[in-house]
Design brief:
76% of the residues lie in helices and 0% in strands. It is mainly α.
Length: 436
């Protein structure tokens, strides 16, 4: 049953992109200065290029699984497995960051949360498991929740983004580069962080089997959702950095709410803090949906173990959802004693490395598929977008912590034994069937 139309699909893209980043990332960017606004522009261009490629791929190959499906078709089982594995890692690692951001904004109302590692852990894990249960109930239920949360959060965001311009102090924005390094370093490093906020451009392509009229709705939802998210991000970053001094912003657990409080008083701060909670809740809901779809699609194609193929009575990948949420819980336990901002920053760095590598291989996959299908109409015009997107991806990777690149490599390699073990089990099963 196809239960995701254009509205729900666009809401999924916006909800996944406009999540925790719009509310918490400005604190991380403040360590570089207002040069990060320029980084947003570069990242926006890179994200639009990536979105165009995903939109074209969804029309060329409307299969569930998104990046995995495209790379599997282009390069075969092993590369397809690695992409699915890395995208799965990105989805559940990112969900840990989103859930952390959600609870971080609860501290605006209940400051004592940040003082108790146990209490904050229980709240974060509780929200993760609540939305896991919602997604097990069905894609339509999750999609409806996504539409509701997107509209609830966008209205106050638009309001404060435009109203906040009247309260900007331009001397705050004059802190262009507050690092001790070059402008290139500050720009590259902040661009790597902004990429985290704009990941999710591929969201509409993943649950393709559940989409109504996928060849039309997936490309349209991808481009429309990306443009709306970019507009909100750039406007809100300028407002927050213009209202709060960089030194104070870098230490803030709830920067957007504090900016609203300075601009329109405590009521405004409370409204924005609540919008941040709703936003993160909606983004977490959307990404938990995807964290189940990717391993399930890979399992159906016999790339992931068959355990992930199992569906609940609601026709949802319950095993994939549950295992992913168990891994989120384990990751949260590993970062148990870190404060909320440090926890968020470390987790998003790892998630961003994973998704950039996935995006890079997907950009190459479309070129391979065009050649494979002998689709040479406007070939050079099409691949020029892929090449520009690859240049952006390489630049963003350069700006990330190289230690995180190493950790990401180790995580991706951890999937290789799983792949060969799964192949061994499949060959063993086929052999036993042949001699019966």
């Amino acid at each position: 049953m196809r239960s995701l139309g254009l509205v729900k699909l666009t809401a999924l893209v916006i909800g996944n992109m406009v999540g925790s980043g719009i509310f918490l990332l400005s604190s991380s960017l403040a360590q570089y200065g207002s040069i990060s606004i320029i980084a947003w522009i570069f990242t926006s261009i890179g994200s639009i290029l990536i979105a165009i490629v995903f939109a074209r791929l969804s029309a060329l190959l409307p299969k569930a699984g998104g990046p995995y499906a495209y790379c599997h078709e282009a390069f075969g089982g092993f590369v397809g497995f690695l992409i699915a594995y890395m995208y799965w890692i990105y989805s559940w690692v990112g969900n840990a960051a989103i859930a952390t951001s959600l609870i971080s904004y609860f501290t605006y109302f209940m400051p004592f949360i940040s003082q108790s590692s146990l209490f904050s852990f229980l709240l974060i894990a509780g929200v993760v498991w609540l939305l896991t249960w919602v997604n097990i109930l069905g894609v339509a239920t999750a999609g409806t929740l996504q539409v509701i949360t997107v509209f609830l959060k966008i209205i106050p965001l638009i309001f404060i983004s435009f109203l906040g311009f009247f309260f900007i102090k331009f001397q705050n924005l004059s802190a262009f580069n507050v690092t001790t390094h070059s402008n290139f370093f500050a720009l590259t490093s902040s661009a790597a962080l902004t990429m985290w906020a704009l990941t999710g451009v591929e969201s509409a392509t993943v649950p393709a089997d559940h989409v109504d009229n996928p060849k039309k709705n997936i490309p349209l939802a991808t481009i429309l959702g990306t443009v709306i998210a970019i507009t909100l991000y750039i406007l809100s970053t300028i407002v927050v950095m213009g209202i709060i001094p960089m030194s104070s912003l870098a230490k803030s657990n709830a920067p957007f709410a504090e900016a609203a409080k300075l601009a329109i008083g405590p009521i405004g701060g409370g409204i924005i803090a609540m919008a941040a909670i709703i936003s993160s809740f909606g983004a977490l809901n959307g990404w938990i949906l995807l964290q189940g779809q990717v391993p399930h699609a890979a399992s159906v194609n016999k790339v992931f173990p068959g355990y992930f193929k199992k569906l609940s009575r609601f026709n949802t990948p319950s095993n994939a959802l549950i295992v992913s949420s168990l891994l989120i819980t384990a990751l949260l336990l590993m970062n148990y004693h870190q404060n909320l901002v440090d926890k968020f920053t470390n987790i998003i760095s790892l998630a961003t490395v994973s998704i950039l590598l996935v995006y890079g291989v997907t950009m190459i996959a479309e070129i391979k598929l065009l050649i494979k299908n002998r689709n040479f109409q406007s070939f050079y015009r099409k691949i020029s977008i892929n090449i520009l997107a690859l240049f952006y991806i390489i630049w963003a990777c350069y700006g990330l912590d190289h230690q995180m690149l190493f950790y990401c490599l180790l995580l991706s390699l951890s999937g290789v034994p799983i792949y060969f073990w799964n192949r061994f089990r499949q060959n063993e099963w086929q052999y036993s069937r042949s001699i019966e």
